[in-house]
Design a protein that fits this description.
Blueprint lengths: L6 H39 L20
Length: 65
């Protein structure tokens, strides 16, 4: 039972495809802006300190001969 695809179907398909592409583009731009805003805020909060080096314990005792 085959059905033919009418011109009305293709017109609606094209409209929905363009709408979906537009929504995807807008949502991507919004989420990118939110991510950049969060990174910018996080970068401002954290202090700029170098990580501390762990102190090494002396493993050999000094011996005088």
């Amino acid at each position: 039972m085959g059905t033919s695809l009418t011109p009305q179907f293709w017109q609606l398909f094209a409209v929905l495809l363009v709408a979906a592409t537009g929504v995807t583009f807008v949502l991507t731009a919004v989420f990118d802006a939110l991510a950049l805003r969060l990174l910018h805020r996080r970068g401002r909060r954290t202090p700029t300190q170098a990580p501390q080096q762990p102190q090494t314990a002396k493993t050999h005792a000094s011996v005088r001969c």
